[in-house]
Design brief:
By secondary structure, the protein is of the alpha/beta class. The chain folds into 2 domains: about 140 residues, Rossmann fold (3-Layer(aba) Sandwich); about 180 residues, Glycogen Phosphorylase B (Rossmann fold, 3-Layer(aba) Sandwich), CATH 3.40.50. The chain is globular. The N terminus is likely disordered.
């Protein structure tokens, strides 16, 4: 009989950590979630230095962690049913001792169960929690406070089961050598040899996206303090990048075709990152780039940069924050992001750069 969930790990199926040789972390989410899984990987690698620590990611984001010193193998799964079934079989062949389900969605839970691992760890609030045999209470219970960061939520699942996490490791990404060479070539072609700032002026929701003209004003401010300006986005976001170039009174070099490892390399070389709350902001934080992140509708406690490097978050306080962000139901227009002033961002830039 499977043990019931509770505020801590099951006492009926205790883990003998001395015999654990293979651990898997399942994290099927976006860029930011993937970056914020690295503190958990760091904690596991530190706790089990002789064990193989693997992570399962969605295939489009998996390149972000390839080459990371915190993980031994990066496994990838696609969206198709056949691919997921094949991935489940591959996980079972790998004979994991412990699997941490850091996602909790249907697919992640199926793959956790399909692994056949003796110890399958998840939160008790997961929809199909009975497919785990170690169930933990909330991260708020573990940390003893209601405001919990995404990285802390993931770390708490490890902590419940006995992995030391009290020092709260910060996010960390490695720069792939091939990506670094590619970025060096692109910078040379763009004529950039000095310090630069990296902007990310796009995001998934309009309630999180600061006005492009504000980024243009910020480009002028950053240029005046001696930094060239670059901006990144995806192909579907190229219209915003083009608008930024047109609106900016100073040159802005834009890229809409970089891979995630290339973005990581570009961010690692930047003297400053300025952008919306997004996965790219977490990449910049994970390579210790001084960062200014502009928040609108999202939860600042949960999604602020998880780093020891200089960083500031800029926002306009409203009682309706945070919200799901799909639309502004309070005002019709997302005042939370629209009313963030360029001057407040300039002040944050001065602070992180110690001007």
């Amino acid at each position: 009989m499977m043990p019931a969930g509770g505020s801590g790990p099951s006492q009926k199926n205790e883990i003998d950590w001395g015999r654990v040789t293979r651990v898997l972390v399942v994290k099927l989410r976006s860029i930011g979630d993937t970056v914020l899984s690295t503190p958990s990987l760091i904690a596991l690698k530190r706790f089990l230095p002789n064990a193989e620590i693997d992570i399962l990611l969605e295939d489009w984001v998996a390149p972000l962690l390839v080459g990371s010193d915190a993980v031994d193998n990066v496994l990838a799964v696609g969206n198709g049913l056949a691919d997921r079934l094949n991935t489940g079989r591959e996980l079972r062949r790998r004979h994991y001792d412990v699997v941490f389900n850091q996602h909790g969605g249907t697919t992640a839970t199926f793959l956790t169960f399909a692994s056949g691992a003796r110890h399958r760890v998840g939160y008790s609030h997961y929809q199909y929690s009975f497919l785990h045999n170690h169930l933990s209470g909330s991260a708020a219970d573990f940390w003893g406070r209601t405001a919990v960061h995404s990285a802390e939520q993931q770390l708490a699942l490890l902590g419940f089961i006995g992995v030391p996490v009290g020092d709260l490791p910060k996010s960390r990404l490695s720069v792939a050598a091939e990506a670094a060479r590619s970025i060096d070539e692109k910078l040379a072609m763009a004529g950039i040899s000095g310090p630069y700032a990296l902007f990310h002026p796009t995001t998934a929701f309009l309630t999180k996206q600061w006005a492009t003209e504000n980024f243009a004003h910020t480009a002028e401010f950053v240029n005046d303090i001696g930094l060239a300006v670059m901006a990144v986005g995806s192909k579907p976001e190229s219209k915003t990048l083009n608008s930024l170039r047109e609106l900016s009174p100073v040159p802005v070099i834009t890229f809409d075709d970089l891979s995630l490892p290339e973005i990581t390399a570009l961010a690692s070389r930047a003297s400053l990152f300025v952008g919306n709350d997004s996965g790219i902001a977490h990449i910049a934080a994970a390579v210790n780039t001084p960062s200014v992140v502009i928040f609108g509708s999202s939860n600042r406690d949960h999604w602020r940069p998880w780093t020891d490097s200089p960083n500031e978050i800029v926002y306009k306080q409203f009682p309706c924050q945070p919200c799901p962000g799909y639309e502004c139901k309070e005002f019709g227009q997302p005042r939370c992001i629209l009313e963030v002033s360029p001057d407040s961002v300039f002040g944050a830039i001065k602070k992180v750069l110690q001007i």
